[in-house]
Amino acid sequence: MSLIEKEFRAVKLNKFTLSIENFLNSLFLRKTKFILTKPFSAIKLKSEISHVVYLNWMVPLAKIQQFVPSGIALDLIGDHVLFSVLTYRHGHFGPAKLYHLKSLYGSPLQSNWRLYISQTQKQFKVPTVLFLANVMSSQIYCIGSRLFSSMMYTHQPLAFQHNHIGVQTHTKIIPGRSNAPDLEVVCHPCDHWNIPSQFLHLSKDINQLLNKIIIQDQALTPLDNGLFRQANIALKFDPKDIRPLKIDFFKSETLADIVQHEKCFAFEIPAVSFFMNHEKTIKL
């Protein structure tokens, strides 16, 4: 389990999955994608995602510094930085121009784990997140993202659920042999916003605080040798639909040392239109 491990590891190992594993981790594939930047760089992707659960912590920079690549400055609040885990179900994730064929697209679960880059850096004048880990429930989507994109080094865990159980939402990621991070959380909607004190340094206004966490125009993934993959992202949703959540149970060996003393600020967005396009490689 790791927040930054890129190597693809199949959940179940046999001759077939071993060959896939070796190819997806090969230098040949990395060089090919570096030279042939299409198709993802030219395709606008769309998904009508649902039931987005945000888990957010203000964590000491010292706890997360090892995961931050050289050349990246995080948005620092005192000696803390914002760290978020988003989990949701895609709704027909595929090319936007062919969305009339959306019935052919899959709707896998996804969880992405991210940090927030400072806009004081001249290369990032718009809100930008740094992807640390990405997990998807679909083997096809996981392999596809690794074949055609350098934006998400996606892991497929042994088990992945994100279900409603009565009024509760139960999310569980079991890595198995994969390099996916682990997570289990049970939460339910509550009536009032209870903002942890550390988050008040971001904003005391709930709408501004939510916008700070949610609204991001770019995403960044570190590659090798000081190179990064950057993509434009856009979200459309109704702010009135956002609901505060109360955590009933939380466990993660991956995050144990990072968030153990910090209070989680959690909320949910029932429906979001997601767009991503214009992948490109940049050097800092």
From TrEMBL:
InterPro entries: DUF2071
Protein name in the entry: DUF2071 domain-containing protein
